[in-house]
Amino acid sequence: MSYRNNIEQQNLLNQFLKENGVELPGETLGKLYDYADLVVETKQFGNLISAKDSEKFLSRHIADSLVAYVYIVRECKEIPAFAGMTSHVQKTTTSAHPYLKATEGSDLIPHTYKWADMGAGAGCPVFPLAIVIPQVQFYAVEPRNMRVQFMQMAKEKLGLKNLTVVGKRFETSGLTDLDFISCRALSTFENDWERARPALKKGGKFLTLKSYNNVAQLESDPAIILHKYTLPNEEQVYALVTRGNE
User: Fold this and answer.
1) Single pTM value for the model
2) At what angle do helices 26-41 and 7-19 cross, to 10 degrees?
3) 185-214 residue pLDDT tens
4) Which residues contact 199 (CB under 8 A, 6 or more apart)?
5) Where do the structural domains in the chain lie, given as residue ranges?
6) 130 with 162: CB under 8 angstroms?
7) Do 182 and 208 form a contact (C-beta atoms < 8 A)?
8) Strand, coil or helix: what is 2?
9) Which residues does residue 224 pair with via DSSP β-bridges, in sequence order?
10) Rounded CA separation 224/218 (Å)
11) In whole angstroms, what is the distance from residue 223 CA to residue 244 CA?
12) Which CATH class is domain 7-244?
């Protein structure tokens, strides 16, 4: 069944977003559903996701991917490009804030900030983030050729002008002076941070999504912020871990 018609999964995702103070416009949600269908139904690039997870892609993987967006809405309102990103603003395609006045479908999107995702795989979290934050330039960095081919195809089908797929290891991608770097369940926090730090600009932020049990010891580090969360119908506790490049 297409996620365009999967009301149960749509409700779980929307309830998760609502509980976290986010309401997305219907057009944005539709594009998230289309991306989910591409991941689950596209087979020529190999099995991109397990059969079990394909049944709960919105409530598990899309919701998880948007945790970083929830963090930005809550914690980064001092950043101009995100200052207007509250739930009532998200109901419209444009905003009164000057950084958010991108015309729908326009090539002239003001890509004020640069965000790279290390080891993007099949595109989580970078594709959902690129869909909901069109005014940021995203880079999906992934060395595996089949995953790169899939993301290129998905980017074209979804019309994501603010996303660039980079088919290299992050260390050889040539990306520098980045405002944000993210990754999801890649390696240990320490290893991920050491890979990301050289490419972050001063004042940039590193964000990673982990199982809370694997990062609980980091709560005592004053340089690191942990945001614990749960996902719909999931018992496990997760954590968004952030560290600034001071």
Assistant:
1) 0.87
2) 130
3) 789 999 999 999 999 999 999 999 999 999
4) 116, 170, 173, 175, 176, 177, 178, 181
5) 7-244
6) yes
7) yes
8) coil
9) 243
10) 7
11) 7
12) alpha beta
